[in-house]
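Input.
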Amino acid sequence: MSNHPIPAPILAALDRADASWRPILEAGLQAVASADPAYLPALAADDYLPTECRIFAAFAQPLEKVKHVLVGEGPYPRAESATGVCFMDGAVGELWSETGLSKPVNRATSLRNFMKMLLVANGQLQAEDTGGSAMAPVAQQARTPGSGVTQTLAQLQDRLLGHGFLLLNAALVFRKHVPPAIDARAWQPFLQTVLAALASQPQPPTLVLWGKIAEQLKKLPETARLPQIHAEHPYNLSFIQHKGMQELFGPMELLRLR
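Output.
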């Protein structure tokens, strides 16, 4: 198979990835270019998120440490929020406020519902009552000095990485004028290459698919070689009550600092 030249800005973004991923990601980009030779040159010349060469930021997690692959839909549609890491909103610092979750968390709907799911899983909230009055005492306890509770989004991301999460999006980029499903389709050959590499690991990781765009990956033959768990995307309120997600994330105690 002949190699296609990969645009320099896209290649430069590979420097954000751990060295263990480099040959796999290069092969993935070749697969994208083979499927549609015009896609990557057009993307490189376009405005897209995430900025600052962060398309492959999720792959800072070394290949051998990956135990779970979380696949969301695509980057947040705001420059300050899109980090190249699935559902980690760069605009969020503190997780808590005096009355509940912080304003930036409440604005990031997926993150808010994920946090509430964690609180239901560990018994701090009742699934049918996750509103303001129920959240206030939880937040006050969390903000007490020495509480041992995760305080910032950066700490939550560290906890997820510590549990071996690779935090991917089905579409690695967001463009205002391109539907996310179109970009997701273009990146499928790349994700196929990534999933094939993960499926070949001595202990293949579990694939956690969130939402309809991520679930398109179920059609790939590589996906069948990985244990899987699916849920609606966490921007749906029903995600808070998803038993499978509670069972997966509850024992990890992500809201407790180690």
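The chain has a mean pLDDT of 95.
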